[in-house]
Amino acid sequence: MGTKENGRQYHHLYRQQQQQQQQQQQERGTNGSVLGGLMRFEARRSDFAGEAFMALKERGHFRTLRFLDLYQCPGLDSQMTIEILKECPLLESFDGNQLLARDILLSSGQRRQRWNRDERDEERGDKEDGGWVCTGMKYLDLHITGFANGMEDVRTHWQVFEQLAKLDKLVYLSIGGKCSANTSISNDNPRNATAENVGDGAVMSSMSSSSTPPPSISSIGPQTTAVATGASGGLDIRLRSGLGQLSTLKRLRMLRFTGVEQQMEVEDVEWMLENLPELKVVQGRLHTDPAKQQVLEKVLERGRVSAWSMYNNVQQAQQK
Known about the structure:
The protein is an alpha/beta fold.
């Protein structure tokens, strides 16, 4: 029971540590940001959308932001999320909404030859350019989706893993769960985020954002193998789909993929234990078969990693 309690509290503990580090930095009176630039912006469960997004961007806050919380904001689309990842070099913590696999491939500078690009892509503005600049990212919570239901080209999964592997300072990574594209705004203390109330006060932080991305993976595995994805169209977290590229995430302590059904095997879990030395919590359903789920949980527990699948169980009960 103790390990499961650790899993529940880890997210909140990490947030508290961030706040403590900010306070210490403020007491020292140091500030590495551009004068007047925001270092923290929070508008979770709000109607944050294009107007507020452009205000943040045009007023230069993308250059200074370190902490961005847009959790469950339906107006934050995948393309906005990509712009944030490409234009916020100091970003260390990002709670967002939906991120499409197709946009990840375009943003990472990988020519999407297997997506049958044509002139219509250029007309829609689907141009490939520089990759993600937030190489100091430590906390990332996005719903990565857009993989086809049923059978999907495994190369797409490999390329998404390749991009995530470049964020080698990650401590917390969540790639499933709570996309709110079709969800009404919560009445639980909602905030209105518009161009008028995008502030200009700076918040200071002591967390370092310097990082050198690891070399790109030159070989991205099988070219014709297909993999089965969950009903939500999420990332397939298995070695056969590219999980091995996350060996760069030596600081990762929590991996979350709630709401995205997986078909993991013992070899996948054992790989995590061997290659992610700081891993403490895995949150999400490891396998749809309850018997296999128990086996995989025991493997994690032997490695002193908490397996927390309660969220998925609650979702399944609600659907019934």
